[in-house]
Inverse folding.
């Protein structure tokens, strides 16, 4: 991650950190909180490089060529330490070792930098040990705590950190990242609609089950426009055999919902937001023949089916009723 990417993906967080570094007002401790995949770890490494770089551009952007930048990138800078859970938790011995490092003079400068991954996984004793450091911060030291669950952390630790929230990545940002990583442009929008975590999206892109799921859903949509018997046959022959678990079926319903969303985007002239861009020609014809009111009913029927699925309704009966509803039949009973 570089500052340009950081400012695009997390503008608020980037602005706060950038201002602190440029004004030489870096806090002694930060708490980065946000969902998995929002770039917290990459951002903490970027801050470390910005603080230790020997030739930063404009006093902020790390050169990525000096010894310090390279060492931080490789995880072997003597004054930059990372603590991660040992098994299921961060133990007191790990924090004691960290505090001992704080008491040493920096090996190559007066600066020292620490990153604690999954800070909510500290044991009570480890958290209390860290709290003692946070209450009496050393000069020229910076600690960054990363967490997905700040509610599990000691309030006293949170109160001694500057909290910075990382928001879920917008779908278009995830799609752009996926394309840069080699995902086909026609597949990236769907993957980014399924998850805002780049690695999960990449995993889906190589998942044969997901590729088949997409094809089955598109085929079901096509037969929904034909005789009701064809749709029921499609359910029996393909859908029920592929979407065997409730979690899988929920994915299938999302894939189906995205088709109707695309029809809405076409009606609104927002083709650049299509989730199935390779289906645009087919869906454009349907958009001309479908009223906004009918489209709303169909989308609501799918959302209602997702709710019924979580309420443990029989999956096969649920899908049969959904097919009838999508074709203009009665509502759920």
């Amino acid at each position: 991650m570089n500052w340009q990417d950081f400012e695009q993906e997390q503008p608020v967080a980037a602005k706060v950190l950038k201002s602190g570094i440029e004004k030489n007002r870096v806090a002694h401790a930060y708490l980065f909180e946000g969902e998995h995949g929002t770039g917290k770890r990459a951002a903490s490494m970027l801050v470390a490089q910005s603080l230790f770089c020997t030739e930063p551009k404009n006093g902020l952007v790390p050169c990525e060529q000096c010894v310090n930048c390279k060492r931080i990138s490789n995880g072997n800078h003597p004054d930059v330490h990372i603590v991660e859970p040992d098994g299921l938790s961060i133990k007191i011995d790990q924090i004691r070792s960290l505090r001992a490092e704080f008491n040493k003079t920096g090996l190559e400068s007066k600066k020292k930098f620490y990153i604690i991954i999954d800070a909510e996984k500290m044991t009570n004793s480890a958290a209390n040990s860290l709290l003692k450091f946070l209450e009496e911060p050393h000069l020229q030291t910076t600690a960054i705590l990363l967490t997905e669950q700040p509610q599990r952390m000691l309030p006293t630790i949170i109160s001694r950190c500057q909290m910075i929230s990382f928001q879920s990545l917008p779908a278009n940002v995830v799609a752009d990242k996926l394309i840069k990583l080699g995902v086909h442009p026609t597949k990236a929008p769907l993957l980014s609609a399924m998850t805002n975590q780049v690695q999960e999206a990449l995993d889906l892109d190589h998942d044969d089950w997901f590729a088949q799921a997409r094809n089955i859903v598109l085929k079901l949509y096509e037969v929904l426009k034909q005789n009701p018997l064809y749709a029921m046959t499609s359910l029996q022959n393909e859908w029920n055999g592929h979407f065997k678990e409730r979690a899988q079926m929920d994915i299938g319903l999302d894939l189906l919902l995205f088709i109707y969303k695309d029809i809405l985007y076409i009606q609104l002239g927002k083709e650049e937001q299509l989730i199935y861009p390779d289906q645009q020609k087919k869906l454009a014809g349907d958009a001309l023949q479908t009223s906004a009111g009918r489209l709303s009913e169909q989308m609501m029927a799918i959302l209602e089916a997702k709710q019924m699925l979580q309420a443990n309704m029989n999956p096969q009966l649920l899908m049969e009723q959904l097919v009838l509803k999508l074709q203009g039949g009665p509502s759920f009973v």
